[in-house]
Amino acid sequence: MKQKSYKIGIFSGDGIGPEIMKEALKVLKVVEQRCAVTFELIEAPFGAAAYFDYGHPFPEQSRAVCDVVDAVLKGPVGLVHSEAIKIPVDMQPERGAVLPLRAHYNTYANFRPVVLPQSLAHLSPLKAEVIGEGIDIIMVRELLGGLYFGKKVVGKDNNGVRYVEETLRYDEIQIRQVLISAFDLAMGRKRVLHNIHKSNILQSSVLWNEVLDEVAQDYPEVKVVHMLVDAAATHLCLKPTQFDVMVMENMFGDILSDQGGGLIGSLGLMPSACIGDGKAYYEPSHGSAPDIAGQNIANPYSMIGSVAMMLEHSLDMSAEAKNIWAAMQGVFSDGYTTPDLAAQKSGDKVIGTDAFGDRVVAKLKAM
Ligand code: NAD
Ligand code: IPM
Ligand code: MN
After folding, report:
1. Domains observed in the chain
2. What distances in angstroms separate CA 1 from CA 4, 31, 256, one per listed residue?
């Protein structure tokens, strides 16, 4: 049988990025050995380090890599505030690299799973009875619109008072495409879609909901539940098990997905997939965690989970993706945890970033 071969862009990023990427690449290596596949890894500079080395956080050579690879694995980027302000605002990696990467690939739908099986309820700060039979949510976050990409004006009025205007803009095409992604996902799951919005205030949500009504006609089997975003924040804490697929605009999704990390015990459990109509890229939902960088204590689950999402969505290897999830959950079930999750005082044995990666690799090899 002819061996399949894929080119993967590797953007390790800043802070804990290189540490957790190292573990993700260990897993990718094992996948290569287990499946009839080879990965050609093309590393490229991206983030604050790229700015200091090449004068741009998303340099031309890295854009060129995007164009030749089948998918990109991206680590988190960013610096602590005191360091970030040494970089011109437009060159800071969040604005200068992450948003341009999203625009470059037109990844309008960001899938952020918030998953904690009942057997791992002890990792969550929520009571076991709130976790019930387990949390299994996918938040679908619109990724290319709203305040993130709207027009911005910074100025002073006639009295010398400084002001800023940031525009929340959506058109119906942007709204429709992400809603179709969410309905399609709901069709393959429980056929319940929570639509998160703020139509009691925002006109953008009014248009969003109008478009949703149109799209919903093509999905009569899907039950739509409307929920205001502020109420959704509370419902997530009190009864997370009511949710299956949630869809929302960009900024709502940024905030609620980090809350999702809190629900299951750590942002370190939050991978994500950024998907459009063409190529996709995969990144943890969290940031570069400068507070713990370089100490071998970051949780690599989010980065390894991003590998699993890449295998499923971009490389047609969903069976192996499932094995990776099972291997990671198996490490927790064996009573091991990284320090972020040990905060719940579960009594688990605390292991470092590399040891977690090694255990995932061992589990996978044993499958
Ligand atoms: P953060 O997500 O980096 O960290 C928040 C908290 O979560 C910290 O206490 C951190 O230690 C912890 N944490 C995050 N990931 C973890 C992991 N894998 N294992 C264990 N603990 C983990 O958020 P922040 O501190 O507000 O931001 C730091 C930098 O990251 C900022 O520059 C921000 O802009 C940037 N950022 C980048 C991305 C991205 O690249 N997509 C996403 C979010 C934030
Ligand atoms: C995320 C991050 C990014 C966002 C930043 C780094 C641009 O917080 O992926 O959640 O706000 O989208
Ligand atoms: Mn965020």
Report:
1. 1-107+276-367 (3.40.718.10), 115-266 (3.40.718.10)
2. 9, 17, 45
